[in-house]
Structures are given as C-alpha cells and as structure tokens.
C-alpha cells in the first residue's frame, strides 16, 4: 500500500491537529532599550525598534503583557560612561529605575535585567580593560577577568534590589555565574534566578544592537572572551556545563539562527530550560528583506521562531515578540 502523508495536510484543521511544535506568546521575552532621555528614538538599523524613556519602557511592558508576553529584558543606555561601567551597578542606574517603574506599574510581568558592563563603559567592553603582553593590534587589549567579576556581581545585586525578577549575565567571563550566584545569595536574593548567556559567540550578527546601545568597542575586540564561531560542540558543552555547575537556572544560546545545532545539543545534554536569543542582526535581515518586498515578513518570522522552538528553545528573546504575538492571536 502506498503511504500517503498528505492526508494529514489536506485541511487547516488537520494540519493544526498533527503539529508537533507549538509557538505561543508565552514563550517570548520582549527586549526593551531604555535610555535616560524623555523622548523615543528610533533605531535606524532595527526598523520598528526604539530607545525608550523609563515611561516608554513601562508602556512597552504593559503592551507586551496585554499580548500574552510574560517577560521583558532591559538593556540600559546611560548618558555617562566610564572605564569601569559604574552606571551598571548604580542604585539609580537606568535599568534600576526602569525595573522599579515597571514592577510598580505592571506587577504581573517578569523583568529580566541584562547583567553586563558593555553599554556602560567608555571603551565598549564587558569589563575592566587590560593589556595582553606580546600582542598587537586588535588582540592587544582584553577584559581583566577577575576584577570584572566583582563589578558584574555588584550589578546583579543592584538589579535584584531594584526589583528585577531575573538577572542575565552576558559578558562571557570565566566564573561570572558563580560570582553572581554567591553575591545574590549573600545579599538575600537567593530567590532570584540567573539566566546565563552560557554559549555566546563573537558574532557578526550583533551589529545593529551595538548601534542601538552605543557599545561598539573602541579598542580591541570581543573574540578574546566571546566564543569562536568555529569552536565546535566541545567548547559549547564546556561553557554550558561550567555555568550549570556554578548555579545557572537557565542556559542561553546567542545568536540562535546560525547555532540551532548547538541549541539542540544543549537541550539534549542539560536538564535546564534553554533560551534562544533571536538577535538584532537576524531581526534586521528579515526586516530589510520584507521592506524590499523580497520576503513575506509574517510568514518568515513565524517560521524562524518555530524553527528555534523545534531545535529545543523553551523561551525566545526576540525583537519580533510584539508582532509575532499579534499574528499568533490572529491565527488562533
């Protein structure tokens, strides 16, 4: 007898009945860029995305929750930057103010705070800079790992004190999860989870984000601490295992689209939720193609996010979150 898989594709109802992968707004985390000004500033490299005031960030969080999106992640853009990124751990820092305002106005939403220094340093790196003996050019400068851990830990505690429900260390420094977990526990925030950027590559897909956050390195490069895109599975497993052992509550793969195989690997190997970061460059590519008329934006976005879910993502950080939530509601 001839097998006929097409029988189950014949109608929309049959296709819906037999789907293995389901996409829902509850799986999304909506990113918000928040700056210290009162206006909203469109980001040219990320059409449809803006830098928001604290009040604007509250409005974004309220809209996200109304669409069924349960979480936002905050990225701060301070007016003042310095060599040590002091705005990241200031009690009245921009993310701290935004977190307090959102939790006061929209208590039902979960606030994730990006825990890094790159948006706050005048050199654009994720920690304190130091020279590398014997190296020249872009590799002559790197992040001084252990002194930077203290600053990341201070940042996480400050964010938790401001009401952040989750802290998300993204610097890719050795020992950052352990240092942050210990600092949170010591400060009385043992209930605050750590969403670790466990597998984060030195990727070309971050370009629009760096434009949005003003975090392009002025010297050196991030290849000395972020992962080599050609590093392979062994390095990814090692990084994820170290973070899990140090107390990470979730593991993230960033970027998502070019590393779906790595995402699938982590899902198989670890008994922790896995988060995919659908990054700025991935977003901008679809937006540019759609605006040029080359692709159907709605179908492409939903297919892309479904692919991330199929690879194993329990949650997805995506700049498409609001649009995707609306499209899913229309499809329901």
Task: Please sum up the structure shown.
The chain has helices at residues 12-17, 54-66, 94-105, 145-161, 176-186, 207-213, 233-245, 260-269, 280-291, 297-311, 321-331; strands at 28-35, 41-42, 50-52, 71-77, 110-115, 129-131, 141-143, 166-169, 195-200, 250-254, 274-278, 315-318.
> What is the CATH class?
Alpha Beta
Let me know the CATH homologous superfamily. Answer: Aldolase class I
| Radius of gyration, in angstroms, nearest whole number | 20 Å
Number of strands: 12
Sheet bearing the most strands, described? 10 strands, mixed
Mean pLDDT: 95
Strand content: 15-25%
Order of helices and strands: HEEEHEHEEEHEHEHHEHEHHEH
Spatial gap, N to C terminus: 36 Å
Instruction: Provide the helix percentage.
Output: 25-40%
Number of helices: 11
Shape: globular
CATH topology: TIM Barrel
Please give the CATH architecture. Answer: Alpha-Beta Barrel
Binding site for Zn(2+): 116, 118, 126
Family: Belongs to the ALAD family.
Subunit structure: Homooctamer.
Pfam family, one: ALAD
Give a written overview of the molecule.
The chain has helices at 12-17, 54-66, 94-105, 145-161, 176-186, 207-213, 233-245, 260-269, 280-291, 297-311, 321-331; strands at 28-35, 41-42, 50-52, 71-77, 110-115, 129-131, 141-143, 166-169, 195-200, 250-254, 274-278, 315-318. The protein has one domain: Aldolase class I (TIM Barrel), CATH 3.20.20. Helix 7 (233-245) packs across helix 8. With 332 residues, it is α/β, with parallel strands linked by helices. Strands 1, 2, 3, 4, 5, 8, 9, 10, 11 and 12 form a ten-stranded mixed β-sheet that branches. It has a two-stranded antiparallel sheet with strand order 6-7. The chain is built from eleven helices and twelve strands. Helix content is 38%, strand content 17%.
């Amino acid at each position: 007898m001839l097998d006929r898989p097409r029988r189950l594709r014949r109608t929309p109802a049959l296709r819906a009945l037999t789907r293995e992968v389901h996409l829902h707004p509850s799986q999304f985390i909506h990113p918000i860029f928040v700056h210290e000004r009162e206006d909203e500033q469109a980001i040219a490299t990320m059409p449809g995305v803006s830098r928001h005031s604290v009040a604007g960030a509250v409005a974004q969080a309220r809209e996200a929750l109304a669409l069924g999106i349960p979480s936002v992640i905050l990225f701060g853009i301070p007016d003042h930057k310095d060599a040590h990124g002091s705005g990241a751990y200031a009690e009245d820092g921009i993310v701290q103010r935004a977190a307090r305002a959102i939790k006061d106005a929209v208590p039902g939403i979960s606030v994730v705070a990006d825990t890094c220094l790159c948006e706050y340093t005048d050199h654009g790196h994720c920690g304190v800079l130091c020279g590398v003996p014997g190296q020249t050019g872009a590799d002559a400068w790197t992040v001084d790992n252990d002194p930077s851990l203290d600053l990341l830990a201070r940042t996480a505690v400050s964010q938790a004190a401001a009401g952040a429900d989750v802290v998300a260390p993204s610097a890719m420094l050795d020992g950052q999860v352990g240092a942050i977990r210990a600092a949170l526990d010591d400060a009385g925030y043992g209930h605050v989870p750590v969403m670790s950027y466990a597998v984060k590559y030195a990727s070309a897909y971050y370009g629009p984000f760096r434009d949005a956050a003003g975090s392009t390195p002025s010297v050196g490069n991030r290849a000395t601490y972020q992962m080599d895109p050609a590093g392979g599975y062994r390095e990814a497993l090692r990084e994820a295992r170290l973070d899990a052992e140090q107390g990470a509550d979730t593991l993230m793969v960033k970027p998502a689209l070019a590393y779906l195989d790595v995402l699938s690997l982590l899902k198989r190997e670890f008994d922790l939720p896995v988060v995919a970061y659908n990054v700025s460059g991935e977003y901008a590519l679809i937006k540019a193609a759609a605006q040029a008329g080359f692709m159907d934006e709605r179908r492409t976005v939903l297919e892309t996010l479904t692919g991330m879910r199929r690879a194993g993502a329990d949650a997805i950080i995506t700049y498409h979150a609001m649009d995707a939530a609306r499209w899913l509601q229309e499809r329901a």
